[in-house]
Design a protein that fits this description.
alpha+beta, Helicase, Ruva Protein, domain 3, Glutaredoxin, five-stranded mixed β-sheet, 16 helices, 10 strands, 12% strand
Length: 508
């Protein structure tokens, strides 16, 4: 909150400074203008904001509280006889130039119906029922007697029953929008169709619209019972000159009309001190009197020629139009600055989102690379452990291998095996040896031939998998290492075998 150089806010209490800051944030008003309205509102931010937007009119409650809290001090006056003569002979001061009257925001108030106490309602219930029955009976009798010829009616009725005319109290109260539609319909029924564009809402809505869009609000109040109403409506208000002036978009005029028989228009006439009909008032924002204060800049009462009516309105518009143009330019600057800040914030947010997205993608790539590296390392470690277990198993299995039987032993199986390296090996096996013994011999052939069998423990939790298969040549038969039966049962007393690598099938 920027402080004004001529206003010293250091004298305010902390609560008053906080209230001033809240009020300035909401209204964007200068400090020199905000402090007086806060003082008149007893430093109540809500009351001050309401006065700011609705017009700083007199607040009886706040004034009474202020008077009670701070009673006016009567300054003691000391003067001698000479000063008394001089004071009485001094000329009276001229009043200051008249300022525009404030234009308060008026909302029609619904009548308050007070409920009768229950005990009193019970006591007066018989009288109420009797009154309703009697009034119903009399209305029925009068209704049927209205069709009787005048000469045959009872003398008590006189010349006849006259219909009651609608007045302000007998007119049904509607919502502001419905009241405006009724006024427009009645105006067209009375004076014919016209090109006047009356506002389709209540007075408060029209005032708010004029204040928001920086336009002029022309209020026209008419009284059907006034003698000059018809001539004013037909000759002045509906004249082409006035209609064209009001409908001219360059004048920025919002037209609101009301019939004082309606509650809203009647309240407007009271608040705006309307003493003569037809009544017209031009309302506008007066920046010099307050940053957001609606004021009455022109009053027109009674009938007048169309030329004079337009001239008076044109004069008031020309007087305050430059001020409104300045406020519009200021608002446009604020709007452009706000849009620029919004665009900058959006660009910053987009850039920040893009940076966050790039950082997220980078983290994902790094995480994927780290996961791949960790998986490769774990696979390598698993392969190394498996290879160690394989070597340990080969040493253990080579130590478990049975020695080759003697050549003189007739109960043997003689096999010629072609190894994977292409080497041809001929060896005798015991007839009770299994096919797994043959596979173990081929797997551990290098250790068995070198005679370097070491006594190694069997690795726990390791299941050896043979990466080759043994098959017969003619006829071709593939032998399973885990098949049942002995070598003699599977191969016979002799045979030619070949060792083939197992080729893993791939998608290709």
């Amino acid at each position: 909150m920027a402080e004004h150089p001529e206003v010293d806010t250091s004298q305010l209490s902390p609560d008053q400074q906080e209230a001033l800051q809240q009020y300035a944030q909401v209204t964007d008003q200068d400090v020199k203008d905000a402090i007086p309205i806060l003082e008149r509102s007893q430093w109540n931010v809500q009351i001050a904001v309401t006065k700011f937007f609705d017009g700083d009119g007199p607040d009886p409650v706040a004034e009474a509280m202020a008077a009670e809290t701070n009673p006016p001090r009567v300054a003691q006056r000391h003067e001698n006889l000479q000063e008394s003569f001089l004071h009485s002979a001094a000329p009276a001061r001229r009043p200051q130039a008249s300022r525009p009257e404030p234009a308060p925001r008026i909302v029609p108030q619904q009548p308050v119906v007070r409920q009768m106490p229950f005990v009193l309602a019970v006591i007066l219930a018989p009288f109420s029922l009797a009154y309703k029955a009697a009034s119903t009976l009399f209305r029925t009798v009068f209704y049927f007697l209205s069709f009787v010829p005048l000469s045959m009616r009872p003398r008590i009725l006189g010349n006849g029953i006259q219909p009651l005319k609608k007045n302000a109290s007998g007119r049904r109260m509607l919502l502001p929008r419905d009241t405006a539609a009724r006024f427009k319909r009645e105006f067209e029924e009375e004076y014919g169709e016209n090109d006047l564009s009356f506002f389709d809402g209540g007075f408060a809505q029209a005032l708010d619209l004029a204040k928001r869009d920086l336009k002029f609000l022309l209020v026209v109040l008419i009284s059907p019972e006034h003698d000059d109403t018809e001539s004013f409506a037909r000759e002045t208000l509906l004249s082409p000159e006035v209609v064209n002036f009001i409908n001219d978009k360059n004048n920025d005029i919002i037209l609101w009309g009301g019939n004082i028989l309606d509650t809203e228009a009647y309240q407007v006439s009271l608040e705006y001190s309307c003493t003569k009909f037809p009544f017209s008032a031009m309302i506008s924002l007066t920046p010099k009197e307050g940053s957001a204060k609606m004021s009455i800049i022109k009053r027109l009462s009674g009938p007048m020629p169309p030329r004079s009516y337009v001239a008076e309105l044109q004069k008031s518009i020309e007087k305050y139009a430059p001020e409104l143009a300045g406020v519009k330019a200021q608002r446009q600057e604020h709007e452009m600055a706000r849009n620029l800040r919004s665009a900058q914030d959006e660009a910053y947010e987009r850039s920040l989102a893009a940076d966050r997205e790039r950082a997220r993608q980078k983290r994902e790539v790094e995480a994927a690379a780290a996961a791949a590296e960790r998986a490769a390392r774990e696979a390598e470690e698993a392969a190394g452990r498996k290879e160690q277990l394989k070597e340990q198993w080969k040493k253990w299995r080579a130590g478990q291998a049975k020695p080759e039987p003697e050549a003189s032993n007739k109960d043997v199986v003689r096999l010629a095996i072609k190894m994977r390296s292409g080497e041809r090996v001929v060896r005798r096996f015991d007839s009770l040896s299994t096919m797994e013994d043959l596979y173990a011999f081929v797997e551990c052939f290098d250790d068995i031939r070198a005679g370097t069998q070491e006594s190694a423990p069997k690795p726990e939790g390791y299941a050896h998998e043979y990466k080759f298969r043994v098959a017969s040549i003619m006829p071709r038969e593939l032998f399973d290492p885990h098949g049942d039966g002995t070598l003699r049962d599977r191969v016979g007393r002799s045979g030619n075998l070949i060792v083939e690598d197992v080729v893993e099938e791939t998608d290709e």
